[in-house]
Amino acid sequence: MSTLEEQLNRAIGELQILDQLINEVRSRVSTLQAIVAEHEGALSFVEELMKNQSSMKILVPIGGGNYIHAEVTDRDKIEVSVGAGIVITKTLQEGKEIIEKRRENLIQAIQNYEQRLQQYLSRAEELRRIIEAISTKIKEGGLESRR
Questions:
Q1: Which of 20, 29, 115, 129 is the most buried (most CB within 10 A)?
Q2: Any residues with CB less than 8 A from the CB of 11 and at least 6 apart, and which?
Q3: Per-10-residue mean pLDDT for the chain, 147 residues long?
Q4: Global confidence as pTM
Q5: What angle do CA 95, 97, 98 make, to 5 degrees?
């Protein structure tokens, strides 16, 4: 195999790996964006609880697109997940701060992934140009050897 063909194979291999990485990063960004949206919904609800002085009637999801009617009567506390199925009781303000911090961390992670994605996309584009150039050289070399 000629050096051009070896270079072409290496570039194609690297491009295939990059394409997989690009898809994985895009998937992670999408997942993180959905989680950020959940946190924003939670923040909106907590802020509404903090503003509202009376009890609130809400719909609580019970799964499968089904809901039950409920009333929030204790507006002073929130149960906050700390991971591993453990929740702790916090004031609304403390809970809001925890949710905001988590949302900020998620947004930072998204920005990091998007930066990495841009690097991968730039390298993939560079590899496509290299592959095109090598392919052209190989084709031209093949034509010259036939003459």
A1: 29
A2: 127, 130, 131, 134
A3: 86 96 98 97 92 85 94 88 92 95 98 98 96 90 56
A4: 0.81
A5: 65
Q: Determine the Cα–Cα distance for residues 122 and 128; give it in Å rounded to an integer.
A: 10
Q: For the chain, how big is the Rg over CA atoms in Å?
A: 27
Q: Which two tokens stand for residue 66?
A: 């089904």
Largest Cα separation within the chain, whole Å, is: 90
Instruction: Assess contact for 114 and 105: CB atoms under 8 A.
Output: no
Q: Give the type of residue at 111.
A: Q
- Burial class of 116 by CB neighbour count within 10 A (0 to 12, 13 to 18, 19+): middle
Distance CA 8, CA 16 (A): 12
